[in-house]
Amino acid sequence: MNNDHSTLLRALHDGHAQALWRYALRLTGNKELAEDVVQEALLRAWCNPDILEQGTAASRAWIYAVARNFAIDECRSARARWEIGSASPPERPRSDHTDTTLDTWLIADALSQLKPEHRVVIVRAYYRSESIAELAEALGVPPGTVKSRLHYGLRALRLALEENGVTGR
Asked: What distance in Å separates the CA atoms of residue 139 and residue 133, rounded to the nearest whole number?
């Protein structure tokens, strides 16, 4: 759009937006919908620059007709018939622990399928946040053995989860 069209659209907006909003408000009875009607009418004027060049009276008549038609379409739409407005926001969803419970159950089941030496390092490393050094000291094995058990234990855990229908990401 060149500067002439921008100037014409600005003049159309400045000269008619407030009156167009009052007209749309009378048609719809809803402030927010009236704002949407004005915005849509101006958007359509912007998309049809030939209308802007027809002069103020023709542009005004066209934009009011667009506003009227859009308001009627919106009021007849399924959204208008089934949507219920509310002055207050909807209630907050309550925390549902179902997913967490199911995840915990699946992991516990998969952990039970591991060798005890793999299970103990996974549980202590991930659930108790123990370091490799702490695990090595507590279990009386070298840190390399702890790392190896973690590696193979996690691999076995992944396979057990996959066998139970849990897919990897």
From this structure: 10
